[in-house]
Amino acid sequence: MRSLMIMKIRVMTQAARRLLIRLAIALSVGLGVMHEVSAQSLTWLGSLGGGCYWASQAFDVSADGGVVVGGACTINGEWHAFRWTVSGGMQDLGTLGGNYSEAHGVSANGGVVVGVAWTTNETHAFRWTTSGGMQDLGTLGGSYSEAFDVSADGSVVVGESTEDRAGLETRAFLWTAVQMRSLGTLGGHFSAAFAVSADGSVVVGSSKNSTNRLRPFRWTASGGMQDLGSLPGGENGEASGVSADGNVVVGTGEIPGYPTRPFRWTVSDGMQALGLPPGYVEAAAYAVSADGNVAVGILSSQYACRWKVPANAEDLNDVYRYLLPHGSILISAYAISPDGRYIVGWGRNAVRGRYEAFLLDTWRTGDTNGDGCIDDSDLLAVLFAFGTPGTGLTRHEDINKDGIVDDADLLQVLFNFGSGC
Ligand SMILES: [Ca+2]
Ligand SMILES: [Ca+2]
């Protein structure tokens, strides 16, 4: 059915292409002044109805940028996990019986969300699905667990949990439908897992070792928990993000005199410091793109930043200054989509005078292939995907993120045709 439809569109495309391109060129000439205005975009995500000064924070984004998850203030002044979509806005994911929850990870297609929620008397990791709602993942034996990330297909969840009722032993956990299991430690009494590779096979986080140092680790089923080492002269650190294949890890370590320095670790080169702009002495790296080449985090504890490896960190407030009128500021970037296009975090929305989650689209509106230019290749991509949700998990042809590639998306391409070229 779908292939027949696509064939029809391909036939139609041959005839329509010349007309559409002519129309697009006419539009692009007529609307030339619009191009810079309609380039990259920044969306402040609001709250769950509450008017709190801390309205929301975003911690993860789906592959196509259409779903963002985090925590937000409710109308009752509580803090609840949210799932945001372009068409539906913020959805309250509820709790496990208490009055607090927060979402930390989302699957590639946006359908599985993981995080932490209060039960009536304990704090437990949850896994939420569009069909099943919020599921309590239990604990490793204690009264506390918290999930921090989920694999691309939503089947593997990682986080931390106490093993004993006294809460003296905390362990990184890996959950699958079969069980929640401990990943052990590097010799101390604590470990926590913060990120998992796309297929769920590589887990990274931090663990105390036998001399009570906090060390970044990388875990695999065959190799167990591996200490990733430290920056020169430092003894502590933690790993926060991992590439899709598990071979690139980013995190934060210390060097003498400076407790917060970003690092990037690779299987081939080990741990390397990520560069800082002149005049800056600290930053933290929280997440990395699927290919391991673009990392995001926070610079000097107050500016959301990005590393396009091997370049030094760039302050996103400088790069996207034109999206930040009236003194708005991007404070921290917590996640980046696998292709590096979308960045989420939180900042100060000066228009509303409060702290809010943000979604930053670093590509031009209408760009489907990331070449920075809206041209006939983008037009054809939209036409070939017409009537479908878009191709692959990135679904860049669904420009307005409403779940279907249709004339609304086509118009966006036409409206921006020629931009950036
Ligand atoms: Ca393009
Ligand atoms: Ca659409």
Task: Give an account of the 3D structure.
- Helix 1 packs antiparallel against helix 3 (376-384) and helix 3 packs antiparallel against helix 4.
- The chain has helices spanning 2-30, 316-319, 376-384, 407-416; strands spanning 41-44, 56-61, 67-73, 79-85, 89-92, 101-106, 112-118, 123-129, 133-136, 145-150, 157-162, 170-175, 180-182, 187-196, 202-209, 214-220, 224-227, 237-242, 248-255, 258-266, 270-273, 283-288, 294-299, 303-308, 314-315, 329-336, 342-349, 354-361.
- The chain is globular and about 70 Å long.
- It has two domains: 2-36 and 371-416, no CATH class; 53-361, TolB, C-terminal domain (Neuraminidase, 6 Propeller).
- The strands form seven sheets. The chain has a four-stranded antiparallel sheet, with no helix packed on it.
- The chain has 421 residues and is mainly β.
- The chain contains four helices and 28 strands.
- 12% of the residues lie in helices and 41% in strands.
- Bound molecules: calcium ion (CA) (2 copies).
- One calcium ion binds at residues 398, 400, 402, 404-406, 408-409.
